[in-house]
Amino acid sequence: MAKKTQEDNELMDKIVSLSKRRGFVFPGSEIYGGLGGTYDYGPLGVALKNNIKDAWRKKFVASRDDMYEVDAAILMNSEVWKASGHVAGFSDPLVECSKCKHRFRADQLEDPTKCPDCDGALGEARQFNMMFSTKIGAVEDSASTVYLRPETAQGIFTNFKNVVDSFHPKLPFGIGQIGKAFRNEITPRDFIFRVREFEQMEVEYFVKESDWQDAFTLWQKNLNEFVSELGLDTSLVHEVEIAEADRAHYSKRTIDFEFEYPFGQKELFGLVYRGNFDLSNHNVEYQDEEAKEKITPHVIEPSIGVDRLVLALLLSAYAEDEKGGEVRSYLKFKPSIAPVICAVSPLLKNKPELIAKAREVYTTLKQEFGRVMWDDNGNIGKRYRRQDEIGTPWCIVIDFDTLGEKPELLDTVTIRDRDTGEQERVQMNELVGYIKEKLN
Length: 440
Ligand code: GAP
What we know:
Blueprint: H1 6-21, E1 25-27, E2 39-41, H2 43-62, E3 67-69, E4 75-76, H3 78-83, H4 86-89, E5 91-96, E6 103-105, E7 126-129, E8 133-135, E9 145-148, H5 153-157, H6 160-167, E10 173-182, E11 197-207, H7 212-229, E12 237-241, E13 253-261, E14 264-273, H8 277-281, E15 286-288, E16 293-295, E17 298-305, H9 306-317, E18 318-323, E19 326-331, E20 342-346, H10 352-369, E21 372-374, H11 380-390, E22 394-398, E23 412-417, E24 423-427, H12 431-439
Parallel strand pairs: 3-10, 20-21, 20-22
Antiparallel strand pairs: 1-2, 4-9, 5-6, 5-7, 8-9, 10-11, 11-17, 12-13, 13-14, 14-17, 15-16, 18-19, 22-23, 23-24
């Protein structure tokens, strides 16, 4: 793996600082000194995540007639996690330093015998289960232990029969779910890349055993299309076939889609053939009407971590250029996922005529697109810099020409392009059409 350069470190620092400064991602519980491995999303981070999740829903659920979506409880009966193999096998090798007592994941260390913090001796590796457990109800005994789900997938398998009984789908069909997952990671790190609470978008696509390879290939194509449609720089994504010894306990085949993060090429999302491991362990069957027999369907699982995708999109969109000795940083998000589609500003904020006209434009665009921001803070140059930094594709300014100072420009506005900095004059009543065309 390529070594981290100073440039890589600087890029991560810039992304972390921009995320906080502009309201994408904040450290969790910050005013109490933080809580390791947790982050909070601010207004722009929420908007970006929602755009990603909406795109996933549109592509993988709403536009298809072989897909169903569920929203299962995070707390599940602990028998689920015994049957799924997570109680026995969802663990990482933990080592502890005999001197400073810091703990590490043995498989992530260059030398698993020496402490990277103080050079002290590391003890024997022991398996550490990554599920968070808690107690349910008022009586605390072994029967009351429940786990926060470490993957959304099991909420799909446990609802397989419910979906079949209510909708009678024919194979192949899939069930998708978006939701939180929790893992007590030994060493959370790299901003929102490895955290203890994160969000997944998962599909379990059920097929007859004989059809698994075709379905796998199709989902491989679907996943590549999805990230390309979000505007991710796909030259930074690499498919890696995972060897049997390194696969999860339920996997018969895994492809990791790895992204070139500044801290190394690491997993962004995965595609797994889980065989019929889960449904057979949960004793769930499906009546195959054609073959007139009960079968246990096999499953293909495309699983995407929302937080890792947010980070990859931020990194892939980040750009800098220089004009007149001044460095400008901007996020060149594809307009369809940008948290704000356009910002509307009056040229000056103490001229009521300008403000009234700008409000008219703002209200029309807000009603049409929703993700529209009113921005009258600071001078126009500052507003452009701020909108560039949050990735707003278009800034619209209402000036004296809009009011008819030059009669031929009456009711026109300037619209500035984030990436080129070029400005065009567009008729107010053509703005919605202009933006719609660009968005498509
Ligand atoms: N149901 C299969 C499953 O959970 P996984 O590879 O363990 O498989 C799927 O997780 C995806 O969830 C990963 O590709 C990654 O995007 C995301 N993910 C896993 N652990 C994570 C963590 N600690 N922090 C952020 N995202 C994580």
